[in-house]
Amino acid sequence: MKKVLVTGALGQIGSELTLKMREIYGADNIIATDIRKTDSDVALSGPFEILDVTDEKAMFNMAKKHEVDTIIHLAALLSATAEKKPLLAWHLNMGGLVNALESARELDCQLFTPSSIGAFGPTTPKDWTPQDIIQRPNTMYGVNKVSGELLCDYYHHKFGVDTRGLRFPGLISYVTPPGGGTTDYAVEIYYEAIKNKRYTSYIDKGTYMDMMYMPDAIAAIINLMEADASKLKHRNSFNVSAMSFDPEQIAAEIKRHIPEFVMNYEVDPVRQSIADSWPNTIDSTCAKEEWGFKAEYDLEKMTNDMLLKLRLKSLLVTA
Prior knowledge:
By secondary structure, the chain is an alpha/beta fold.
Protein backbone atom coordinates (compact mmCIF):
# COMPACT_ATOMS: atom_id res chain seq x y z
CA MET A 1 0.00 0.00 0.00
CA LYS A 2 1.33 3.41 -1.01
CA LYS A 3 -1.76 5.58 -1.45
CA VAL A 4 -5.06 4.47 0.04
CA LEU A 5 -8.72 5.49 -0.29
CA VAL A 6 -10.76 4.62 2.82
CA THR A 7 -14.56 4.58 2.64
CA GLY A 8 -16.60 4.75 5.84
CA ALA A 9 -13.60 6.37 7.50
CA LEU A 10 -15.66 7.83 10.37
CA GLY A 11 -17.04 4.43 11.39
CA GLN A 12 -15.87 2.05 14.10
CA ILE A 13 -13.00 0.49 12.13
CA GLY A 14 -12.25 3.45 9.89
CA SER A 15 -11.76 5.92 12.74
CA GLU A 16 -8.79 3.97 14.08
CA LEU A 17 -7.49 2.36 10.89
CA THR A 18 -7.20 5.70 9.08
CA LEU A 19 -5.10 7.26 11.84
CA LYS A 20 -2.88 4.18 12.15
CA MET A 21 -2.23 4.06 8.41
CA ARG A 22 -1.41 7.77 8.39
CA GLU A 23 1.24 7.06 11.02
CA ILE A 24 2.72 4.29 8.85
CA TYR A 25 2.31 5.56 5.29
CA GLY A 26 2.13 9.34 5.78
CA ALA A 27 -0.95 11.50 6.33
CA ASP A 28 -1.16 12.75 2.74
CA ASN A 29 -1.25 9.18 1.40
CA ILE A 30 -4.43 8.12 3.23
CA ILE A 31 -7.57 9.66 1.71
CA ALA A 32 -10.42 9.39 4.22
CA THR A 33 -14.01 9.53 2.94
CA ASP A 34 -17.48 9.29 4.44
CA ILE A 35 -21.04 10.40 3.76
CA ARG A 36 -20.56 13.32 6.17
CA LYS A 37 -17.73 15.39 7.61
CA THR A 38 -17.02 16.05 11.29
CA ASP A 39 -14.33 17.86 13.26
CA SER A 40 -12.77 14.52 14.27
CA ASP A 41 -9.07 13.66 14.06
CA VAL A 42 -9.80 11.57 10.97
CA ALA A 43 -11.20 14.57 9.11
CA LEU A 44 -8.57 17.02 10.32
CA SER A 45 -5.33 15.02 10.30
CA GLY A 46 -5.13 14.44 6.55
CA PRO A 47 -7.07 14.52 3.27
CA PHE A 48 -10.83 14.06 3.73
CA GLU A 49 -13.60 13.95 1.12
CA ILE A 50 -17.35 13.47 1.29
CA LEU A 51 -18.33 10.37 -0.70
CA ASP A 52 -21.57 8.45 -1.23
CA VAL A 53 -20.36 4.93 -2.01
CA THR A 54 -23.60 4.09 -3.82
CA ASP A 55 -22.61 6.64 -6.50
CA GLU A 56 -20.48 4.62 -8.93
CA LYS A 57 -19.05 7.60 -10.85
CA ALA A 58 -18.20 9.49 -7.67
CA MET A 59 -16.35 6.46 -6.28
CA PHE A 60 -14.34 5.97 -9.47
CA ASN A 61 -13.56 9.67 -9.88
CA MET A 62 -12.43 9.93 -6.25
CA ALA A 63 -10.04 7.01 -6.57
CA LYS A 64 -8.74 8.28 -9.92
CA LYS A 65 -8.34 11.88 -8.69
CA HIS A 66 -6.10 10.82 -5.81
CA GLU A 67 -4.23 8.16 -7.85
CA VAL A 68 -4.70 5.52 -5.16
CA ASP A 69 -3.35 1.98 -5.41
CA THR A 70 -5.49 0.56 -2.60
CA ILE A 71 -9.16 0.84 -1.62
CA ILE A 72 -10.20 0.00 1.94
CA HIS A 73 -13.97 -0.30 1.65
CA LEU A 74 -15.61 -0.09 5.09
CA ALA A 75 -18.88 1.79 4.47
CA ALA A 76 -21.79 -0.44 5.53
CA LEU A 77 -24.88 -0.90 7.70
CA LEU A 78 -24.20 -3.28 10.61
CA SER A 79 -26.22 -6.34 11.64
CA ALA A 80 -28.97 -5.02 13.93
CA THR A 81 -29.56 -1.90 11.82
CA ALA A 82 -29.58 -3.99 8.65
CA GLU A 83 -32.40 -6.17 10.04
CA LYS A 84 -34.50 -3.08 10.63
CA LYS A 85 -33.76 -1.69 7.15
CA PRO A 86 -33.00 -4.70 4.94
CA LEU A 87 -33.51 -3.03 1.55
CA LEU A 88 -31.33 -0.08 2.53
CA ALA A 89 -28.73 -2.57 3.77
CA TRP A 90 -28.71 -4.38 0.43
CA HIS A 91 -28.49 -1.10 -1.47
CA LEU A 92 -25.64 0.27 0.63
CA ASN A 93 -23.71 -2.89 1.49
CA MET A 94 -23.85 -4.56 -1.90
CA GLY A 95 -24.14 -1.51 -4.16
CA GLY A 96 -21.21 0.16 -2.44
CA LEU A 97 -19.08 -2.98 -2.68
CA VAL A 98 -19.77 -3.42 -6.40
CA ASN A 99 -18.76 0.19 -6.99
CA ALA A 100 -15.56 -0.29 -4.99
CA LEU A 101 -14.73 -3.48 -6.90
CA GLU A 102 -15.36 -1.80 -10.25
CA SER A 103 -13.09 1.09 -9.31
CA ALA A 104 -10.41 -1.37 -8.19
CA ARG A 105 -10.76 -3.32 -11.46
CA GLU A 106 -10.55 -0.25 -13.69
CA LEU A 107 -7.70 1.38 -11.78
CA ASP A 108 -5.76 -1.81 -10.91
CA CYS A 109 -6.04 -1.31 -7.13
CA GLN A 110 -5.81 -3.66 -4.20
CA LEU A 111 -9.11 -3.89 -2.35
CA PHE A 112 -9.94 -4.80 1.24
CA THR A 113 -13.46 -5.18 2.59
CA PRO A 114 -14.42 -6.83 5.88
CA SER A 115 -16.65 -9.84 6.19
CA SER A 116 -18.06 -11.05 9.51
CA ILE A 117 -18.99 -14.03 11.64
CA GLY A 118 -22.47 -12.92 10.55
CA ALA A 119 -21.72 -14.72 7.29
CA PHE A 120 -22.31 -17.98 9.18
CA GLY A 121 -25.80 -19.27 9.91
CA PRO A 122 -27.75 -21.51 12.29
CA THR A 123 -26.74 -24.70 10.45
CA THR A 124 -23.02 -23.90 10.75
CA PRO A 125 -21.18 -25.88 13.48
CA LYS A 126 -21.02 -23.48 16.43
CA ASP A 127 -17.79 -24.55 18.13
CA TRP A 128 -14.41 -23.91 16.47
CA THR A 129 -16.17 -23.16 13.22
CA PRO A 130 -13.78 -24.10 10.37
CA GLN A 131 -12.61 -21.74 7.67
CA ASP A 132 -14.47 -23.61 4.91
CA ILE A 133 -17.92 -24.74 6.03
CA ILE A 134 -21.61 -24.32 5.22
CA GLN A 135 -22.74 -20.73 5.89
CA ARG A 136 -26.44 -20.11 5.00
CA PRO A 137 -27.08 -17.02 7.17
CA ASN A 138 -30.66 -15.99 7.97
CA THR A 139 -30.10 -12.23 8.32
CA MET A 140 -29.78 -9.55 5.65
CA TYR A 141 -26.39 -8.59 7.05
CA GLY A 142 -25.24 -12.19 6.78
CA VAL A 143 -26.58 -12.50 3.24
CA ASN A 144 -24.67 -9.32 2.33
CA LYS A 145 -21.45 -10.70 3.82
CA VAL A 146 -21.64 -14.09 2.10
CA SER A 147 -22.49 -12.36 -1.17
CA GLY A 148 -19.59 -9.98 -0.65
CA GLU A 149 -17.14 -12.82 -0.05
CA LEU A 150 -18.25 -14.54 -3.25
CA LEU A 151 -18.24 -11.33 -5.25
CA CYS A 152 -14.68 -10.53 -4.17
CA ASP A 153 -13.64 -14.07 -5.09
CA TYR A 154 -15.25 -13.56 -8.50
CA TYR A 155 -13.45 -10.27 -9.17
CA HIS A 156 -10.15 -11.90 -8.24
CA HIS A 157 -10.61 -14.97 -10.43
CA LYS A 158 -12.35 -13.22 -13.33
CA PHE A 159 -10.48 -9.90 -13.49
CA GLY A 160 -7.35 -10.46 -11.37
CA VAL A 161 -8.28 -7.85 -8.76
CA ASP A 162 -6.14 -8.27 -5.62
CA THR A 163 -9.06 -8.61 -3.22
CA ARG A 164 -8.53 -9.43 0.47
CA GLY A 165 -10.81 -9.67 3.50
CA LEU A 166 -11.33 -10.87 7.06
CA ARG A 167 -14.31 -12.43 8.82
CA PHE A 168 -14.32 -10.21 11.88
CA PRO A 169 -15.93 -11.17 15.18
CA GLY A 170 -17.45 -8.50 17.43
CA LEU A 171 -15.05 -5.54 17.60
CA ILE A 172 -14.54 -3.63 20.85
CA SER A 173 -13.23 -0.05 20.89
CA TYR A 174 -12.99 2.91 23.24
CA VAL A 175 -12.62 5.40 20.37
CA THR A 176 -16.04 5.29 18.69
CA PRO A 177 -19.45 4.62 20.27
CA PRO A 178 -21.50 1.51 19.30
CA GLY A 179 -22.93 1.64 15.80
CA GLY A 180 -25.80 -0.84 15.46
CA GLY A 181 -24.07 -4.21 15.71
CA THR A 182 -25.32 -7.27 17.57
CA THR A 183 -22.07 -7.56 19.54
CA ASP A 184 -22.18 -3.91 20.62
CA TYR A 185 -23.25 -4.90 24.13
CA ALA A 186 -19.59 -5.76 24.72
CA VAL A 187 -18.71 -2.13 23.92
CA GLU A 188 -21.63 -0.48 25.72
CA ILE A 189 -20.97 -2.38 28.95
CA TYR A 190 -17.61 -0.64 29.46
CA TYR A 191 -19.06 2.82 28.87
CA GLU A 192 -21.92 2.15 31.30
CA ALA A 193 -19.62 0.57 33.88
CA ILE A 194 -17.57 3.77 34.02
CA LYS A 195 -20.56 6.11 33.88
CA ASN A 196 -23.29 4.38 35.92
CA LYS A 197 -21.69 1.24 37.40
CA ARG A 198 -24.50 -0.86 35.98
CA TYR A 199 -25.59 -2.20 32.60
CA THR A 200 -28.70 -3.85 31.18
CA SER A 201 -27.71 -6.42 28.56
CA TYR A 202 -29.89 -7.07 25.54
CA ILE A 203 -27.99 -10.35 25.00
CA ASP A 204 -28.97 -13.24 27.28
CA LYS A 205 -26.84 -15.15 29.77
CA GLY A 206 -24.77 -17.97 28.33
CA THR A 207 -24.59 -16.48 24.81
CA TYR A 208 -21.02 -16.93 23.61
CA MET A 209 -19.70 -14.87 20.72
CA ASP A 210 -16.23 -14.30 19.32
CA MET A 211 -14.71 -10.88 20.00
CA MET A 212 -11.58 -8.88 19.21
CA TYR A 213 -10.09 -5.67 20.58
CA MET A 214 -9.73 -3.00 17.92
CA PRO A 215 -5.90 -2.72 18.03
CA ASP A 216 -5.72 -6.40 17.00
CA ALA A 217 -8.26 -5.82 14.22
CA ILE A 218 -6.32 -2.84 12.84
CA ALA A 219 -3.06 -4.79 12.89
CA ALA A 220 -4.76 -7.72 11.14
CA ILE A 221 -5.99 -5.54 8.27
CA ILE A 222 -2.58 -3.94 7.70
CA ASN A 223 -0.72 -7.25 7.98
CA LEU A 224 -3.08 -8.97 5.55
CA MET A 225 -2.77 -6.18 3.01
CA GLU A 226 1.02 -6.33 3.25
CA ALA A 227 1.14 -10.14 3.04
CA ASP A 228 2.71 -12.03 0.13
CA ALA A 229 -0.15 -12.63 -2.31
CA SER A 230 1.32 -15.96 -3.43
CA LYS A 231 0.74 -17.41 0.06
CA LEU A 232 -2.95 -16.47 0.30
CA LYS A 233 -5.37 -19.31 -0.39
CA HIS A 234 -8.38 -17.74 1.38
CA ARG A 235 -8.25 -14.17 0.16
CA ASN A 236 -11.62 -12.74 1.12
CA SER A 237 -12.86 -14.55 4.17
CA PHE A 238 -10.14 -15.32 6.70
CA ASN A 239 -11.56 -16.36 10.08
CA VAL A 240 -9.93 -14.17 12.76
CA SER A 241 -10.72 -14.00 16.47
CA ALA A 242 -9.05 -13.28 19.79
CA MET A 243 -11.49 -14.44 22.46
CA SER A 244 -14.96 -15.83 23.07
CA PHE A 245 -17.08 -14.98 26.11
CA ASP A 246 -20.66 -14.61 27.31
CA PRO A 247 -22.17 -11.58 29.11
CA GLU A 248 -21.53 -13.07 32.56
CA GLN A 249 -17.81 -13.42 31.90
CA ILE A 250 -17.29 -9.85 30.72
CA ALA A 251 -19.34 -8.59 33.67
CA ALA A 252 -17.22 -10.64 36.09
CA GLU A 253 -14.02 -9.22 34.58
CA ILE A 254 -15.33 -5.67 34.97
CA LYS A 255 -16.29 -6.37 38.60
CA ARG A 256 -12.64 -7.10 39.33
CA HIS A 257 -12.01 -3.41 38.64
CA ILE A 258 -15.39 -1.97 39.70
CA PRO A 259 -16.71 -4.21 42.52
CA GLU A 260 -20.05 -2.40 42.73
CA PHE A 261 -20.84 -3.02 39.05
CA VAL A 262 -24.26 -4.66 38.47
CA MET A 263 -25.47 -6.45 35.33
CA ASN A 264 -29.17 -6.86 34.50
CA TYR A 265 -30.86 -8.41 31.49
CA GLU A 266 -33.63 -7.28 29.14
CA VAL A 267 -33.19 -9.52 26.11
CA ASP A 268 -33.85 -7.99 22.69
CA PRO A 269 -35.46 -10.78 20.60
CA VAL A 270 -34.07 -9.45 17.30
CA ARG A 271 -30.45 -9.15 18.39
CA GLN A 272 -30.64 -12.33 20.45
CA SER A 273 -31.89 -14.30 17.45
CA ILE A 274 -29.00 -12.94 15.39
CA ALA A 275 -26.50 -13.87 18.10
CA ASP A 276 -27.98 -17.38 18.39
CA SER A 277 -27.38 -17.95 14.67
CA TRP A 278 -23.67 -17.16 14.96
CA PRO A 279 -20.80 -19.40 16.10
CA ASN A 280 -19.63 -19.62 19.71
CA THR A 281 -16.00 -19.80 18.57
CA ILE A 282 -14.27 -19.79 15.19
CA ASP A 283 -11.01 -21.38 14.05
CA SER A 284 -8.35 -18.87 12.89
CA THR A 285 -5.79 -21.49 11.80
CA CYS A 286 -5.75 -20.51 8.12
CA ALA A 287 -5.03 -16.86 8.92
CA LYS A 288 -2.20 -17.92 11.22
CA GLU A 289 -0.67 -20.25 8.65
CA GLU A 290 -1.08 -18.12 5.51
CA TRP A 291 -0.02 -14.69 6.77
CA GLY A 292 0.91 -14.98 10.44
CA PHE A 293 -2.21 -13.65 12.19
CA LYS A 294 -1.80 -13.25 15.94
CA ALA A 295 -3.99 -11.51 18.51
CA GLU A 296 -2.31 -9.74 21.44
CA TYR A 297 -5.35 -9.07 23.63
CA ASP A 298 -7.45 -11.49 25.69
CA LEU A 299 -10.45 -10.52 27.87
CA GLU A 300 -8.33 -9.58 30.88
CA LYS A 301 -5.81 -7.46 28.97
CA MET A 302 -8.55 -5.80 26.90
CA THR A 303 -10.62 -4.92 29.99
CA ASN A 304 -7.60 -3.35 31.70
CA ASP A 305 -6.95 -1.18 28.66
CA MET A 306 -10.60 -0.32 27.91
CA LEU A 307 -11.31 0.90 31.44
CA LEU A 308 -8.07 2.87 31.58
CA LYS A 309 -8.68 4.57 28.21
CA LEU A 310 -12.35 5.31 28.92
CA ARG A 311 -11.48 6.88 32.28
CA LEU A 312 -8.88 9.08 30.59
CA LYS A 313 -11.36 9.95 27.87
CA SER A 314 -13.95 10.90 30.51
CA LEU A 315 -11.45 13.16 32.27
CA LEU A 316 -10.60 14.93 29.01
CA VAL A 317 -14.28 15.53 28.24
CA THR A 318 -14.99 17.02 31.67
CA ALA A 319 -11.76 19.05 31.89
